[in-house]
Amino acid sequence: MGHMGAGAPQGPQPQPLPGVAHVIAVGSGKGGVGKTTVAVNLSVALAKMGHKVGLIDADIYGPNVPTMLGATRQPNVVGDNRIEPVVGHGVKFISIGLISPGDKPLVMRGPMLHQIIRQFLQQVEWGELDYLIIDLPPGTGDVVISLVQTVPLTGAVVVSTGSNVALEDARKALEMFHQVKVEVLGMVENMSQMTLPSGEVIDVFGAGGTERTAAQFNIDFLGAVELNPSIREGGDRGMPMALAGPDSKLAGEFYEVARHIVEKAKEVASRDEDVLEIS
């Protein structure tokens, strides 16, 4: 953390989570681009690669992670009011959807959101983790601010489709992370192209747009995931596509993104160590 200049407001300083090596936020400028699908499959891929992985479903308004990970039981409370994460496919996770299940939407304001994010970070027994992935609500709002104030982030991943409309909003997400001084590790293009049974490839949402946007902003492009009904079916059934392993063509795309993220996280960590040595 840089030292604040004299007279700068000394807000709450983010505290690292003991035992957690990297905290990575997955965001998008708008809803409907498959950000949660990417976050869940990325988490499962990292776990299958041998990493210890946690996932926070911070998408308070549409908490779909429990369904996608096929685990919807309520978490246990242990010891001194600590919450035990639920485990789905080797990923430890927590979601407001586990605590307040059913179809009633949660109506919440800023301070309550802040409280929940803090609890999910600090009161959950995460244990040792290589990666804690945080699935953010779409758009640019309070949750990100709460997150940045609570815990130091390794960086963020921005998910978009290739459409101009989605990319317009993705650029806002990039700008928001820039403003709160969170490094964007890279962009992922979801629902990129669709391969018909005949083998013909159709471009539904403007494939390649995300890669061009990333290049424009001098940000890494982490990979593209195709638009495919099996990916959606896997999520609906609680059997994420990434379970098929890195050799499956569809799942392989998530593993490519996961490998890129591991590289970027290492880069950031070694840069931070250099900074500490210099200061």
Structure overview:
With 279 residues, this protein is α/β, with parallel strands linked by helices. The protein has a single domain, classed as Rossmann fold, CATH 3.40.50.300. It is built from nine helices and twelve strands. The strands form three sheets. The chain has an eight-stranded mixed sheet, sandwiched between helices. Strands 3-4 form a two-stranded antiparallel sheet. Helix 1 crosses helix 9 and helix 4 (110-122) packs parallel to helix 5 (142-150). The longest helix is centred in the last third of the chain and has 30 residues, at 249-278.
The Cα radius of gyration reads 18 Å
How many helices? 9
| Count of strand segments | 12
Helical fraction equals 25-40%
Tell me the fraction of residues in β-strands, as a range. Answer: 15-25%
Mean pLDDT: 88
Report the sheet with the most strands, covering strand number, pairing sense and barrel closure: 8 strands, mixed
Q: Which ranges are low-confidence, i.e. pLDDT below 50, for 5 or more consecutive residues? A: 1-9
Number of domains: 1
